[in-house]
Design goal:
Layout: E1 9-10, H1 11-15, H2 22-32, E2 35-45, E3 48-58, E4 61-67, H3 75-91, E5 95-104, E6 112-116, H4 118-141, H5 162-168
Parallel strand pairs: 1-2, 4-5
Antiparallel strand pairs: 2-3, 3-4, 5-6
Helix pairs in contact: 3-4
């Protein structure tokens, strides 16, 4: 992990793929200590689960850090940060002080730079909330959306449902 975050509890190592347990273990460690650092901290609110790469707790304040293997901030990274912010904030009782994106930076001795994107995230929060509602509505419909496979299946990330779509004929 990054050098500036030593002494962290790595929930990813502790829990592996048992993602259902991440929020409970996260709350346990946050309640147990006045200050702590967690890797892969889990938060759940409104039936949405997020795993934050790094969470730093200072009393009732949380600073969230998302690590990206890129040199530039993209809209996708910003939206990811906004979802993290929204769910973490809703999961309470802690207050999210900042949401940050860590990017590669070869010009720095550390090899990375930290961008505080809290203001940018707050500006798109309303849009992100609507996108979460839209995604939930698709899941509630109970049927496969009638959308042909295309560029959206690989951009910005490869979709985990591609194999399903191939089998069901959504091509």
């Amino acid at each position: 992990r990054l050098r500036g975050f030593q002494g962290a509890v790595d929930l990813g190592r502790l829990l592996g793929r048992n993602i259902i347990h991440y929020p409970g273990f996260t709350q346990y460690f946050l309640k147990k200590r006045a200050s702590c650092i967690l890797y892969e901290a889990g938060f759940s609110a409104e039936n949405v689960l997020v795993l934050a790469d790094i969470v730093v707790k200072h009393w009732f304040w949380l600073d969230i850090y998302e690590i990206k293997r890129a040199k530039e901030l993209t809209d996708v990274f910003l939206r990811d940060a906004a979802i993290q912010y929204y769910v973490t904030k809703k999961s309470g009782p802690y207050r999210v002080r900042s949401i940050n994106v860590i990017l590669k930076d070869d010009s720095k001795h550390s090899g990375y730079r930290i961008l505080n994107v809290t203001r940018k995230v707050r500006k798109i929060l309303k849009q992100v909330k609507q996108e979460i509602r839209d995604c939930k509505q698709v899941l509630r419909n109970g049927s496969v959306p009638d959308i042909a496979m295309g560029e959206q299946c690989d951009t910005p990330y490869e979709c985990q449902f591609k194999a399903f779509c191939r089998v069901t004929g959504s091509m």
